[in-house]
Amino acid sequence: MDVPTQNSHLEDELSCSICLELFSRPLELPCGHNFCAVCLDRSLAVQRPPYRCPECGWESTEKPVGRNNFKLRSIVERYGISFTQCAEGSRRNCTEHEDPLKLYCEECKSCICAVCAVAGIHNGHSMVPFSKADAQVQCKLAENLEIINSKVEMCNSYLQQFQEDEGDVRKYFEAVRQKKRNCVDKLQQLLEDFKEQIEACVIAEEEVTLRKINAKLRNYGRQKEELTAIQESIKNNMAEKDHFLSIQNFLSLEERIAGAIQEDPPILPGTPIKGKTPVQLCDKHFEHFKAETEKLYQILQNLKLKWQGCPYLTFDPNTSSPKLLLLDNNKTVEGTKQNNSYSDHPMRFDFHPQVLCIQSFSSGCNAWEVEVLEAGNWAIGVATKKMPLKGWDNCSLLGYNADSWCLYNVFGKLAVWHNNQRKTPVQIHPVHRIRVLLDLDAGVLSFYHASSTLELLYTFNEKFTVSLLPCFWLGAGTKLALRQVTNI
Questions:
Q1: Which residues of 209-237 are buried (b: 16+ CB within 10 A; e: fewer)?
Q2: What is the 3-state secondary structure (H, E, C) of 401-459?
Q3: Using CA atoms in the order 341, 347, 349, 355, what is the torsion angle rounded to 10 degrees?
Q4: 125 domain residue, yes or no
Q5: Same domain, yes or no, for 332 and 203?
Q6: Domains contained in the chain, number
Q7: SS3 content of the chain, % helix, strand, coil (to 5)
């Protein structure tokens, strides 16, 4: 079979110029020519200094040591056999015996000739014809292809999901950026409006106050002019030497002098702006500004909640007081008059009707809601793991120690407690659902009345340094249920 010229040229480039065979462990001389390691060693062994390159005659006084040409060796090993043997039928012969390759040695994983099988190194090995070996190869390839196809489908599925996730993430953060821009724009507008309102209040109050002062200035100015004129007339009359004229002048001044003397002396007015400030003059505007900024802050908190997700809470049965009954897979708690039979546990409240949640929080923005199923007395809050659990005194009562914060509803009146200090929040009646927002990064614990809109009841501003657990206190007959926040 004719060999294509291009293939012949390639084979020539990959062949040793000494043995005319494909390179075997090619070594490169400083002149750049390559030879088989054995061929080069044999050629140099018969030479005397100076040593010469067998191809170009390059000389060296010392016997040269060829450098391993790993790149060329890799090319020969990777392409040489497949190229020459597949392109030329004569190359499907055994390189050792020159017999046709007809068998496949399963142990050595190589193609061999009949001589190799009978008298060569493959004698005694497991051998099969090419047809059977190829059938095994095809079967193995089919199995591998099935696995690869499955993996390709899985990768396609993942790629599609990640592409969708990428689109969702981009949409979400674009919405976040838009809300951020809206919040900033709104805040800037609120600041500008509030600035103008304060300035208008200041200008108006300034005008009113100055008008009052100017009226008094004019009044006292006229009084001063009259008194000054009478003062000058008295001095002149006292200096008069003519007795007749002195008496006549006094008689003409007597009535004016009497009027000036009888008139009450001027009273120094108080400071016109005493007790007033621009903000006090604009209380209504300030309250509006405060309410609007709180709405903007709530929008930013909601963005954090949407991204982080809201937790699912469950009551911890190991902490429940015997005066409480857990229901609905520990999602609902009810205060009872009788004690329930619970085993002893070091984390159990033994006197006060209180219970903790299993979940705790140490970072991020978290929110949950509590629905009042049966109205009564209750307290909703958070506590650290250091909060006392045992005993009847107030030290172990929610809100009455430094390790707990809560919102109380007692006989229909709302209050917040922390470290045995009470404050009255915004009063809203009735309260059916409470949202607790715990932003540990910002140091904020807020309680909201969760109706059609969120109404802020109270906010604690604390620097929380330890984990917090949701904590509850219930009076007898009260029933509360944990709810996940969904309407963010």
A1: eeeeeeeeeeeeeeeeeeeeebeebeeeb
A2: CCCEEEEEEECCEEEEEECCEEECCCCCCCCCEEEEEEECCCCEEEEEEECCCEEEEEE
A3: -90
A4: yes
A5: no
A6: 4
A7: 40, 20, 35
* First CA to last CA distance, the chain: 80
Per-position b or e across 418-440, b if 16+ CB within 10 A of its CB: beeeeeebeeeeebeebbbbbbb
- What six digits make up the tokens of 262? 């009888």
Q: Is residue 329 located within the same domain as residue 462?
A: yes
Residue span of the structural domain in which 87 resides: 5-92
Rounded to two decimals, the pTM is 0.47
Q: Dig out the tokens for 324 from the structure.
A: 């409480």
Q: 453 is written with which tokens?
A: 């809109």
C-beta of residue 445 within 8 angstroms of C-beta of residue 463: no
Q: What is the mean pLDDT of the chain?
A: 83
How far is residue 211's CA from residue 202's CA, in Å, rounded to a whole number?
A: 14
344 and 467 part of one domain:
yes
Residues 352/473, Cβ–Cβ less than 8 Å: yes
Does residue 114 sit within a domain? yes
- Checking if the pLDDT of 30 tops 70, the result is yes
DSSP H or E run through 150: helix 130-238
Confidence of residue 303 (pLDDT cuts 50, 70, 90): low
Q: Residues for the chain: how many in total?
A: 488
What's the pLDDT tens digit per position in 402-452? Answer: 999 999 998 888 999 999 999 888 777 788 999 999 988 889 899 999 888
Residue 1 confidence (pLDDT): 38
- Residue 87: CATH number of its domain: 3.30.40.10
Q: Check residue 250 and report its DSSP letter.
A: H
Query: pLDDT above 90 covers what percent of the chain?
Result: 34
What does the alpha-carbon distance between residue 459 and residue 425 come to, in Å, rounded to a whole number? 9
Tens digits of residue pLDDT in 105-117: 888 888 888 778 7
In this structure, are 27 and 124 located in the same domain?
no
Which residues, 6+ apart, have CB-to-CB distance to 81 below 8 Å? 22, 91
Residues 241 and 295 in one domain: yes
DSSP 327-342: ETTTTEEEE-SSPP--
Residue that is written with structure tokens 């009735």 in the block = 430
- Is 366 found in the same domain as 295? no
Classify residue 25 as left (phi > 0), alpha (psi -120 to 50) or beta.
left
Q: Which of 43, 32, 40, 123 is nearest to 72 (CA)?
A: 32
Q: What residues contact residue 240 under an 8 Å CB cut-off, 6+ apart?
A: 246, 249
DSSP character for 379?
E
Alpha-carbon gap, residue 21 to 24, rounded angstroms: 8
Same domain, 122 and 224: no
Helix (H) or strand (E) holding 472: strand 469-474
The alpha carbon of 242 is separated from its chain's Cα centroid by a whole number of angstroms, namely 102
Cβ atoms 389, 350 nearer than 8 A: yes
